[in-house]
Amino acid sequence: MSSAVPIVLAGARGHGRWHLDNIRRLQDKGIVRLAGVCELTPLGDDELPEGLGSPEQSADFGALLDSTGARVAVICTPIPTHADLALTAARKGVHLLLEKPPAPSYAEYRRMADGIAETGVACQIGFQSLGSHAVPAIRTMMAEGAIGEISGIGGAGAWARPESYYRRAPWAGRRRLNGVDVVDGALTNPLAHAVATALALNGTVRADDVTGVETELLRANDIESDDTSCVRVGTAQDRPVVVAATLCAEDPGEPYVVVHGDRGRITFWYKQDRVLLQRAGRGPEESEYGRTDLLENLVEHLIDGTGLLVTPEATGAFMKVVEAIRLAPDPDPLPAGAWQPLPDEQRRVVPGIDGLVAAAADTLALYSELGAPWADPARTKEVSTDDSP
Predict the structure, then answer these.
(1) CA distances from residue 366 to 44, 65, 119, 228, 319 in whole angstroms, order as listed
(2) Residues 321-342 pLDDT 10s
(3) Domains of the chain in sequence order
(4) pLDDT tens figures, 178-228
(5) How far apart, in Å, are the Cα atoms of 377 and each of 43, 228, 244, 374?
(6) What does residue 332 show for φ and ψ, rounded to 5 degrees?
(7) Cα–Cα dist 26/300, whole Å
(8) How many contiguous H segments (helices) and E segments (strands) does the chain have?
(9) Phi first, then psi: what are they for 314, rounded to 5°?
(10) Could you give the CA distance from residue 97 to residue 127 in angstroms, rounded to a whole number?
């Protein structure tokens, strides 16, 4: 373990438990060592996966980095804290895996990304789907004309979340909290991977690759942010990217991204690393791919210079979408007749939303254009990239 990279994890509960398990996996391989855990309340022995030892614990992130000699910090804390914690680590020369979304606004993203660049530390943004080997494989298919000329990229996510999901933390389901941006909406947090993956397949990764964003944000739940929404992104590649999402699905399914060509289509279920190629004159071809873990990729970068898969600059386009959602009017509450309670599951569903989400990805149209009676086209907000900092 003497050569293992010492790591501090900030935010070990909630999604942070996944990081604990992943660190344990890499620690078993002798690659990393969990040196510290930053939580407001220390983890109990029953919260640490067996085999991780007894890492130092503290609520003071900066002091913990110093005392442990951490070389890498994994930040999985509330969205509004990302930029400050990332900069704290970077200024101490500690490399970073920063959970998505990297920041709640484009200005905070730029402050974070520029500050990290000045320090020279390495930073990986936690869009795990972009570590899938399917991503370069699909890009190759597109470049080689497997489905002809590309007309656009669609994304669909029909998930379900109980009402307790919005009570799990003070910032959950909020657009802002105590005057600070949060922007915890369906497309910016739980289904952010659908947006980032669709943009990446289109080659739309940097901020200046986005020419404009149309948003339709709605909510069935009694929250501040959106739980049913769609966006259409104008791109420098002159191909639209449309992503539709809901957390109020009738029959929740696997989210996916679909590449449309004039001679076929490619569907990518990004959580499963599964790809379906359909093209004229041939039978369907289904493939499964491996995946490179982003923390492992970061450590390899530090050891032998392996290229990082998801740098801050490679998430600039995604952050332009986040900014458009932040600047859009607050989400419209769906009329009472447009949603139904599911008492057994303690959640709300929007009848017909599963089909609308799929149709948006399939036709590259917004909810209002698909005839959703509760989507008012007059409320569709279009943001030019010139409108944001």
Answers:
(1) 47, 46, 42, 12, 20
(2) 999 999 999 999 999 899 999 9
(3) 5-128 (3.40.50.720), 132-290+311-387 (3.30.360.10)
(4) 999 999 999 999 999 999 999 999 999 999 999 999 999 999 999 999 999
(5) 48, 15, 15, 10
(6) -75, 135
(7) 12
(8) 9, 20
(9) -75, -5
(10) 10
